[in-house]
Amino acid sequence: MQPPHLSLYVHFPYCVRKCPYCDFASRASRQIPEQVYLTALGRELSLWRQELATDARPLHSIFLGGGTPSLFSPASIATLLGWIGEHWSLEEGCEITIEANPESLTLDKLAGYHQAGVNRLSLGVQSLLDERLKQLHRPHDVATAIRAMAWGRQAGFTNINLDLIYATPGQSLSDWQGELAMAIALQPDHLSCYTLTLEEGTPFFAAHEQGELPVLGEEEELLLFSHTRQWLTQQGMPPYEISNFCRPGFQCRHNLNYWNYGDYLGLGAAAHGKWTSQQGIIHRTVNIHHDQPYMASLMAGTGGRQSKEILTPREAGAETLIMGLRLHQGIHLAHYQRHAGISLWQAHGKTLEELLQDGLLQLAKEQLSLTENGVKLANLVLAKLV
Ligand code: SF4
Q: Does a structural domain hold residue 282?
């Protein structure tokens, strides 16, 4: 079996402040331990290289995510990319993304990232209405976001994504239409548009439980969701995944590798990795969640890892399906079978039949995908299948 692509994810767990809806592995920090964290990343990188000593695959993509990676200086990012380059060769066209929040940027900083080799910028714009940014407790305003986009282009980035959140409390369709039009006017190459989800344990979740945060109803949310997909398609940015849109040729190579169930090394606190051995055995790695014990573990030479497990074919099959069906093109039945060890018909024949009959899934040339109705009910469809 042809080995999958190998990507690298690096997690930066610090933010200026913690957003009230966020359950990502990140914490607010006035003074980030930049040098120590960088050293820990370097040590983990060497350990990964030792562990994968016989794996000659070049890196397909690198993603510097968070948290807020743009709290780190261009010099630190250059050092990290230098270390990565000492240990791994990079595929032709290797995509190197940095996630950046508008308030943390200057033109010089962006130019520094670009010079360091970063070739894709993902801006955490979230909203293009000041009142909504305040509602989300984001530290930037619309003017700062627009300026960051302009600086990104000036700094040389020809591949820019904007992250947007919608279906926020009180948001009307016309509000969202206005924001989307503004986003398109900024001429991004890629848009990630996620609906707000209330994650347990967050202040937004608690406020909602206490009746203090009225969220949109299912129908209102669906209206915004459908409009987003239709309107962005008309603007030349069709969805290639449930929540991701781009101009032709600007799909995110790194995320595509996740959705195609490729391999990725997870570096940094709380990072997850997935790696397939030459024998076809799939390993899942999970790093220590909090930054301090993660760094302490690497400084003490104990690896920074919380767990490493082998996935069963059943688990690998389920993950292949969950990831692949998110894509507009869906998943090839043979791709599922390769991982699950049995065909999708053997595993879920009856459910599959029902979902096809209900018009939520479609099958063409052995390629299974969600229909437009299925996309609206994606969570339900996936829950039935795995
Ligand atoms: S900036 Fe992003 S990662 Fe940081 S707290 Fe806010 S949503 Fe979470």
A: no
The H or E element that residue 307 is part of is strand 305-310
Tell me how many degrees the CA angle 189-195-200 measures, rounded to the nearest 5: 135
CA–CA separation, 269 and 37 (whole Å): 9
Q: Is the pTM of this model over 0.70?
A: yes
66: left (phi over 0), alpha (psi -120 to 50) or beta: beta
Give the distance (Å) from ligand 1 centre to CA of residue 218.
25
Tokens of 4: 């999958």
Pocket test for ligand 1, best of 68, 125, 162 (most atoms within 8 A of CB): 68
H or E, element range at 27 = strand 27-28
Residues 190 and 101 in one domain: yes
Q: What is the CATH number of the domain that holds 328?
A: 1.10.10
* Ligand 1 centroid from CA 198, angstroms: 14
Beta bridge partners of 309: 284
pLDDT in tens, 112-121: 999 999 999 9
